[in-house]
Design brief:
Strand order of the largest sheet: 3-2-1-4
CATH topology: Sufe protein. Chain: A
Number of strands: 4
Helix content: 40-55%
Strand content: 15-25%
Number of domains: 1
Largest sheet: 4 strands, mixed
Radius of gyration: 14 Å
Number of helices: 5
Length: 152
């Protein structure tokens, strides 16, 4: 990973961990899903208001490591106001980014802030931390009723 990209990765993670966006309970949520990573203790609850297949609002609460919290924060900023189908495309792109399945230059051009999580691919044990909130959001969009666990 080039040094400039690595610095951006670290800045975004630190900033979103210190000041998470869309943090807190969302009253009247139409979709609520819990997710947990038993291995490291990360636990989040994702709340969404979806109307006419648009994610009108999204929030999260819970706790976890810097990577998981920053990832949840960035996720909410990326999918808020987007159609469910676009949120699902971001979910797929994010998964490819954190598992190293994309070209770095291509990723940076098309993925915006989520591209900063490409550095996670260098630490496979952290992939579950980074993807917890995204899998939780994905399951909520799919209408699943059971909570998400990274160990299942």
């Amino acid at each position: 990973m080039n040094p400039e990209f690595k610095e951006l990765y670290q800045e975004i993670i630190l900033e979103h961990n210190r000041s998470p966006r869309n943090f807190g309970v969302l009253e009247n949520a139409t979709h609520v899903m819990e997710g947990r990573n038993p291995l490291c203790g990360d636990q989040y609850k994702i709340y969404m208001i979806i109307e006419d297949d648009i994610i009108k609002d999204v929030r999260f609460e819970g706790s976890g490591c810097a990577i998981s919290k920053a990832s949840a924060s960035v996720m909410t900023t990326v999918v808020k106001g987007k159609p469910k189908t676009e949120a699902e495309r971001y979910f797929t792109l994010f998964h490819k980014i954190v598992t190293g399945e994309t070209d770095e230059e291509e990723t940076f051009e098309s993925a915006g802030k989520i591209a900063a999580f490409a550095g996670v691919a260098e630490f496979p044990v952290r992939v579950k931390c980074a993807s917890l909130a995204w899998h939780t959001m994905h399951n909520a969009l799919q209408g699943n009723k059971t909570s998400v666990s990274t160990e299942e």
